[in-house]
Specification:
heterodimer; A: alpha+beta; Rossmann fold; 2 domains; six-stranded mixed β-sheet; five-stranded antiparallel β-sheet; 35% strand; globular; B: mainly alpha; 0% strand; transport (chain B)
């Protein structure tokens, strides 16, 4: 594996006396797209600003292209870092044309080289016909792409994207996040995206760090986060699901109301007593609708999603679980329906 | 009472009045350009974060804004020759005084203009590799200036009206020229009426310009 383009180690950041990031670290391979995902106030934007050079570190180290650019007593100025950034509000220069915005960071190049690079970037983001327009004449999605082209123009090895799609409607957001991914991959530029929207993270990132209270709770790809969440926070934050109680029968079996599950019970769960209570995470795709099943649950709520309906089902014990069912199975609230378990990855946590 | 007025003297007085008007306009133009440049430097000094530089600039602005312009004109005219040992002439003295005085007002306008540009614009420029001063020059000042053009122009017609104060040191501006002509032909009232019409026409044209610019800037923002 090639050397990482960015390394952060044991970062500590504070606003005034309030420490918002502590002991955070990760690595990013060249060309990889990572995402810091977390609820507002978890410190993700602060980390991004520290990498860009807009915040000073209280502790820890940031290495970019094998060079120390930030620590408690080193602070390379943002303009000397060579890291591109796309801002939440785009921060395009309103007094300059699209082409001038993109060429803004290319002052060191000779004019023909600069113009060639601007044309190349316009082509890459699909805005060649808008070159002479001004930012206020463009749609939100177009402005977004100009901001990306401007950040990519000076050939940075890393681009930071701060909630880049938050000003767009949801349809646009999904389309553009895939588009931006393609553009970044075509340019071969590594990127870090910050967002609170997991769909954005799933659509764009190769790897995702879920952040909470200034720390990374888990660093993994989307599949791992969803199916093997490291802790309850990740389980709650990523995807939907319900927690039900289970009893550990032996180290390989957990029994819940709906049946027995084969599972490797985490060690911390069961020292001492052989039978103990655990919390089991059931995802909506773990519960399958099956009319022939003897297991029955009552429809408590339903949410129509188009191709599927997300049912909230009440079990005889009163516990609730979620089930994602193809939408031609249209049941009414209060009706009992047959279900069965189809759990491939059993996720258990110590009983809270 | 108006039947006693005789406007036939106006054509006779026109050459002298135009000469006065030319000086008023020259004074306005030079003081505006010089004042905006000096004022922008003062604003940058105040926003630079440098403690003493900022304080010095603030002190300058506060002093200029708390002294009546007429007094400044007189002081400058009488004090500078005492300091340098030679008179500098009414017109030169007026131009320097107005530039220094107006700079204080323009600097407050430019300061507000600079502060109205979102912080993100500087960050965006830094992230592309510009230094702080480069981003000031290429990103912040052009926008601040553009946004503030209407306010700067409004200040300019205050400046234009104030040029009439140079009569105090005997410089011949529009008002003084009209007064002189009035005395010469014994038609003071007519001359005052005529000259106020000129002041009105110029200020009205300027205010139309301000209105037009406000509209254009509102579209861009």
């Amino acid at each position: 594996m090639s050397a990482p383009v960015l390394q952060t180690r044991d970062l500590r950041l504070a606003y005034g006396r309030h420490e918002v990031v502590r002991g955070l670290g990760f690595e990013l391979a060249p060309g990889a797209i990572a995402c810091l995902l977390g609820p507002s106030g978890c410190g993700k934007t602060t980390v991004l600003r520290a990498i860009a050079g807009f915040e000073r570190l209280l502790g820890g180290e940031i290495h970019f292209e094998a060079r120390l650019i930030g620590s408690a007593d080193t602070h390379l100025a943002p303009e000397a870092r060579g890291i591109g950034m796309v801002f939440q509000d785009y921060a395009l220069f309103p007094h300059l044309s699209v082409a001038a915005n993109i060429g803004f960071g290319l002052g060191k190049l000779a004019r023909p080289a600069r113009e060639a690079r601007v044309a190349e970037m316009l082509e890459l983001v699909g805005l060649a016909s808008e070159a002479q327009k001004f930012p206020h004449e463009l749609s939100g999605g177009q402005q977004q792409r100009v901001a990306l082209a401007r950040a990519l123009a000076p050939h940075p090895a890393l681009v930071l994207l701060d909630e880049p799609f938050s000003n767009l409607d949801s349809e646009m957001r999904e389309r553009l996040s895939l588009e931006v991914r393609d553009i970044l991959k075509a340019a071969g530029t590594a990127a870090i995206l910050v967002t609170h929207d997991q769909h954005e993270a799933f659509a764009m990132a190769d790897e995702i760090g879920v952040m909470h209270e200034g720390r990374i709770q888990q660093w993994a790809d989307a599949w791992q986060l969803y199916h093997r969440p490291a802790n309850r926070f990740v389980a709650d934050f990523v995807g939907q699901g319900a927690i039900v109680q289970g009893v550990v029968r032996d180290p390989a079996t957990v029994e819940i109301e709906l049946g027995r599950l084969s599972s490797n019970v985490p060690v911390e769960c069961c020292h001492g007593s052989r039978e103990c209570v655990v919390d089991v995470l059931l995802r909506p795709d773990d519960i399958v609708h099956d009319d022939s099943s003897p297991l029955q649950a009552i429809v408590a709520r339903k949410a129509f999603k188009g191709a599927e309906i997300l049912y909230t089902l009440r079990l005889p014990s009163g516990a609730e679980v979620l089930s994602l069912v193809p939408s031609h199975h249209n049941h009414t609230i209060g009706q009992p329906i047959g279900i069965r378990l189809d759990v491939e990855q059993v996720v258990t946590f110590p009983h809270a | 009472m108006f039947s006693t007025l005789d406007f036939s003297v106006i054509p006779l007085a026109l050459p002298a009045i135009f000469k006065g008007l030319a000086f008023s306009l020259e004074l306005t133009l030079i003081a505006m350009i010089g004042g905006v440049i000096l004022g922008t430097l003062l604003a940058l000094a105040r926003l630079s974060g440098g403690k003493w530089l900022g304080r010095a600039a603030k002190f300058y602005v506060d002093i200029m804004r708390s002294i009546p312009l007429l007094m400044m004109i007189l002081w400058f005219f009488f004090l500078i020759p005492l300091l340098t040992g030679q008179p500098i002439g009414q017109e030169k003295s007026a131009i320097i005084t107005f530039t220094l005085f107006q700079a204080a007002f323009y600097s407050e306008i430019m300061r507000a203009g600079i502060q109205s540009i979102p912080r993100g614009q500087v960050n965006a420029a830094l992230a592309i590799g510009m230094t702080y001063w480069q981003s000031m020059g290429h990103v912040i000042l052009p926008q601040a200036f553009r946004n503030m053009v209407p306010v700067l122009l409004t200040q300019t017609f205050v400046l234009f009206q104030d040029t009439s104060l140079v009569y105090a040191i005997g410089a011949t501006d529009l008002l003084k020229a009209a007064e002189n002509a009035g005395m010469l032909y014994g038609r003071t009232v007519e001359m005052y009426l005529f000259v106020s019409l000129i002041y009105f026409a110029i200020c009205f044209a300027l205010s139309m310009l301000v209105k037009y610019m406000n509209k254009r800037i509102a579209i861009i923002r």
